Amino acid sequence: MKSTAISIIIAGLIIAGAIILSKNISNNSQPTNTNNQVVNANNVSIVDGKQIIEIGAKGGYAPRISVAKAGIPTVLRFTTSGTFDCSSSIRIPSKNIFQVLPQTGSTDIDLGTTTAGNIDGTCGMGMYQFQVEFR
Hints:
Blueprint: H1 2-28, E1 44-47, E2 50-57, E3 61-62, E4 65-68, E5 73-81, E6 89-92, E7 97-100, E8 104-113, E9 117-123, E10 129-134
Parallel strand pairs: 2-5, 4-10
Antiparallel strand pairs: 1-2, 2-3, 5-8, 6-7, 6-9, 9-10
């Protein structure tokens, strides 16, 4: 009985250590924004003079923070794949945008030419957030 309890405690400590170590490794290998938050630099591209920012929507938004260039016509492209939760609706209050996304597919939201600063968005319920930082 005593050895079983000790084994469970040791297993828990090993799992906790592995989780902490994997977070430190992933945080050190990814780019950060000006607030030192991890961002995905691979979700922004320029196609035919328009900046496309791709964000996945399912159980939240990925990446949660994107960094893009200011002064370029910009499109947010949300991709869903069997999304049934509240992240299937987008709210961007500063742009007066509310958009319901399909359960599976791709939806473009035209932001026009942006200025430097942040655009903050949430799901329809305000549970999940995303941000685009324009520099």
